[in-house]
Design goal:
There is one protein chain. With 375 residues, the protein is an alpha/beta fold. The longest helix has 16 residues. Helix 7 links the parallel strand 4 and strand 5. Helix 7 runs parallel beside helix 8 and helix 9 crosses helix 10. The chain starts with 12 loop residues before the first helix and ends with a strand. The protein has three domains: 94 residues, no CATH class; 187 residues, Rossmann fold, CATH 3.40.50; 48 residues, Orthogonal Bundle (Arc Repressor Mutant, subunit A), CATH 1.10.10. The protein has 14 helices and twelve strands. Pfam families: DNA_processg_A, DprA_N, WHD_DprA. This is DNA-protecting protein DprA.
Length: 375
């Protein structure tokens, strides 16, 4: 079996190991990971700097133990999976364009699907029989047309979408499943067989470390990957405040197409889709309409569900000193752009100060490029 940390020729095995260790270290999320790599040049140098950065933020710090990373890599290898790093030529372009894109993914299956046009098909776990049938037929038609159908392998609509895409795969189309657990964990248990089919005939991806059981906080992260991989997100059936609507909102914020299939106002499971359409999502009733919307997609969606957020653009500056921004922060989220304006410091200096506070456990990051003090 090939080495799961094998990457681009320019990335050594030691640096690949250091990247995994950096991302698994306490309080290092995708945004901080990217900023640390820009500042220090290599993950090895960034890991070495973590304790001193955190001390300046006001707390002691220990990076992830090397033995834990060794155990994770061994588990990935046992699962027949491999790592994909953010700067690999195989890393999906649309996902790379999103804020907080996952720096490292674990994969099983055909990474060539990352380079197919992709559409997310999501919906209710307790889906009606009609919604399950629609999800399966839409996904089969989209796969036959050469699309990669992306979903979350959940019960109901997600599972039907994967099954339909597997049945209709042709012309390079297929299905990508994004799971909220480690690459070696099947969830829900009744989809273990379907998960293996996806890994064998499509592509299975996970952001969480191998061995991680799915927790509630992992699902919004999974949803952002589903939306980020796809030119558009189709919601088949969803109740208000469901996870599927979170995926649709994220897709809108990313400047992607948001589509929904209307349903009866008498069925609460259709209320989410109907509200999406009312709020600007495109009403679709046939797979051909989805294809028409996404053909040659240029990040200019026809849906008006949500305007894309634009965050601060940080230019790397290895000479920057941290700005004094702690007094400007509270437990109420504020945009990083606003901190740059009010502090009068450069963006790179503000960024470094936020990294120090985050590593010390004093800062939380929120959607839309906002931050707050930890409670």
């Amino acid at each position: 079996m090939s080495d799961p940390v094998a990457a681009a020729a320019a990335l050594s095995q030691d640096e690949a190991f250091a990247r995994i260790r950096l991302l698994r270290s306490p309080n290092v999320g995708p945004v901080t990971y990217a900023a640390l790599l820009r500042r220090f040049g290599t993950a090895a140098a960034a890991v070495e700097a973590l304790p001193s950065l955190s001390a300046r933020g006001g707390a002691p710090y220990r990076p992830a133990p090397e033995k834990r990373i060794e155990a994770e890599i061994a588990a990935v290898k046992r699962a027949g999976a491999r790592y994909l790093f953010h700067d690999s030529p195989d890393y999906p372009r649309l996902l790379a364009e999103t804020d907080g894109a996952p720096p490292i993914l674990a994969l099983r299956g055909d990474a060539a699907l990352f380079h197919r046009p992709a559409v997310a098909v999501v919906g209710a776990r307790n889906a009606s029989a009609g919604a399950v049938k629609l999800a399966r037929s839409f996904a089969a038609a989209l796969a036959e047309a050469g699309y990669a159908v992306v979903s979350g392998l959940a019960r109901g609509v997600d599972g039907a979408a994967h099954a339909g895409a597997l049945a209709g795969a042709g012309q390079g189309g297929g299905t990508i499943a994004v799971i909220a657990s480690g690459i070696d964990i099947a969830y829900p248990p009744e989809h273990a067989g379907l998960q293996e089919q996806v890994a064998a005939s499509g592509l299975l991806i996970a952001e969480q470390p191998a061995g991680t059981e799915p927790l509630a906080r992992h699902f919004p992260s999974r949803n952002r990957i589903i939306a980020g991989l796809s030119a558009g997100t189709l919601v088949v059936e969803a109740a208000p405040r469901s996870g599927s609507l979170i995926t649709a909102r994220l897709a809108g914020e990313m400047g992607r197409e948001v589509m929904a299939i209307p349903g009866s106002p008498l069925d609460s499971r259709a209320h989410g889709c109907n509200q999406l359409i009312r709020d600007g999502a495109i009403l679709v009733q046939k797979a051909e309409e989805v294809i028409e919307l996404l053909e040659g997609f240029t990040c200019q969606p026809r849906s008006t569900f949500r305007e894309a957020d634009v965050g601060a653009d940080f230019t790397p500056d290895v000479e920057a000193e941290p700005a004094d921004v702690a007094a400007l922060l509270s437990t109420a989220p504020v945009s990083v752009d606003e901190l740059v304006r009010q502090s009068g410091a450069g963006a790179a200096s503000v960024q470094l100060a936020l990294i120090e506070l985050e590593l010390a456990g004093r800062l939380l990051r929120h959607a839309g490029g906002r931050v707050s003090l930890a409670a």
